[in-house]
Each structure stands twice: as C-alpha cells, then as structure tokens.
Amino acid sequence: MKLPHGEQADLGTKLEDYSLNPAHRHGQHKARVFESALGITLVNAVILRDALMRASATSENAQHKGNNGHGDVYELRFPLTTGKGTAIVLSGWIVRTGEDFPRLTTCFIV
C-alpha cells in the first residue's frame, strides 16, 4: 500500500536532531551506521531527506501497523544506494488523529 498522502510528508528535524546526529544519546548509533554503510552524515543529509521524500510519495511498500492512540502508524522500507553502498532503510511514520499527512517518527538502517 502507499503511505497516505505521502507526497505531503513532513520530515521535521528528525534526521538532523536524531537519526544523523552523532551527539545524540540514542541517535548516535543510527548516525554511525548511516555513515558506515552509506556515507551519509549531517553534511550530506539531503541524500537521505530526498530518498525519504521520494519513497513516501511513490513507494507501494508501506505497511499499516495500527493506531497507537495518537494516530495511524506506518512502516516503510526501501533500498538506498549511494557511492559507498546499498542498504535497506526503515522509516516509521504517523498520521496523527485530525491530520491528513504523515510525519516521520524514526529512520534507521536494518
């Protein structure tokens, strides 16, 4: 299935503040893996940002995981290839109750 209204996806600052932040207490581990596997860091975060926006708008691989009381939760996995390698990126999304667009909740390499 497609992510509902994926073309309107909101990434917020999740990548910069968490997933690619080597100084974040929990995100630092994700940041280390993104750099090691794909060469993606805060400096070139646009690579991951663009890939997430493309996948959220076009992928047919979204899976509805239910409603967590705040909204409908989705998981979307997609392959990402850079000059350094290829990896499967898992992204988590929520369409909050009362909203009609997905917000990124998590992003990491599986």
Question: Describe it for me?
Answer:
- The protein has a four-stranded antiparallel sheet with strand order 1-2-3-4.
- The protein is globular, with a radius of gyration of 13 Å.
- By secondary structure, the chain is an alpha+beta fold.
- The chain is built from three helices and four strands, in the order αααββββ.
- It has one domain (6-109).
- The chain is 28% helix and 31% strand.
Topology:
Layout: H1 14-19, H2 27-38, H3 46-58, E1 63-67, E2 71-81, E3 86-96, E4 103-109
Antiparallel strand pairs: 1-2, 2-3, 3-4
Write a concise keyword list for the protein shown above.
110 residues, 4 strands, 28% helix, 4-stranded antiparallel β-sheet, alpha+beta
Report the order of strands and helices: HHHEEEE
On the 0 to 100 scale, the average pLDDT is: 97
Shape: globular
- Strand-pairing-aware structural class: alpha+beta
In short:
The chain is built from 3 helices and 4 strands.
